[in-house]
Amino acid sequence: MRTPLTDQDMHNLAMNHVGRELEERGFEFIAVNSKLKKYPQFVCVDKNQQRFFVIVKAVKLPANPHNYDVVWMETFKKHAREQEAKVLYAGVGLGNPDDEALPLYLDEDYLLEYNGIQVVETNLN
């Protein structure tokens, strides 16, 4: 029997893709939070000890994973500035390869739309 992925499962799958990229880029993880709608998902530092808050957003395709709530992001950017951290955003689109109306299933192939991690400027406008 096929088991559909829950929203939390899709979020965890997206976090796995982003986490691997962060590791490949040499980031060291300070904290990881995999709960839905709890931000940031990753707190990490680079080789210069600069702190980064990484936001991971998983969406079901055909929704655009690269769009985020700009108003909410302004609040988050303020928090990052207060913590002397930089903000990174990773939008991950996941879809069923057979039909976009179908869910993703556990241990089955899926479509992935991921353009990598984006830097979100935290400077005041």
How would you sum up this structure, described in words?
Strands 1, 2, 3, 4, 5 and 6 form a six-stranded mixed sheet that branches. The model has no long low-confidence stretch (mean pLDDT 94). The radius of gyration is 15 Å and the shape is elongated. 25% of the residues lie in helices and 30% in strands. The chain has helices at residues 7-24, 70-82; strands at residues 28-32, 42-45, 51-60, 85-95, 111-114, 118-120. It is α+β, with helices and mostly antiparallel strands. The protein has a single domain, classed as 3-Layer(aba) Sandwich (Trna Endonuclease, Chain: A, domain 1). Helix 2 links the parallel strand 3 and strand 4. The chain is built from two helices and six strands. 27% of the residues are buried.
Task: Write a concise keyword list for the protein shown above.
single chain, 125 residues, alpha+beta, Trna Endonuclease, Chain: A, domain 1, 6-stranded mixed sheet, 30% strand
Q: End-to-end distance, in Å?
A: 52 Å
Order of helices and strands: HEEEHEEE
Helix content: 10-25%
Q: Which range does the strand content fall in?
A: 25-35%
- Catalogue the unreliable spans: none
Overall mean confidence score, pLDDT? 94
Structural class: alpha+beta
User: Radius of gyration, rounded?
Assistant: 15 Å
Count of discrete alpha- or pi-helical segments spanning 4 or more residues: 2
The total count of strands amounts to 6
Give the biggest beta sheet: 6 strands, mixed
Per the principal axes of the C-alpha atoms, what is the gross shape? elongated
For this entry, what is the oligomeric state of its chains?
single chain
CATH class: Alpha Beta
CATH topology description: Trna Endonuclease, Chain: A, domain 1
- Summed up, the domain count is 1
| CATH architectural grouping | 3-Layer(aba) Sandwich
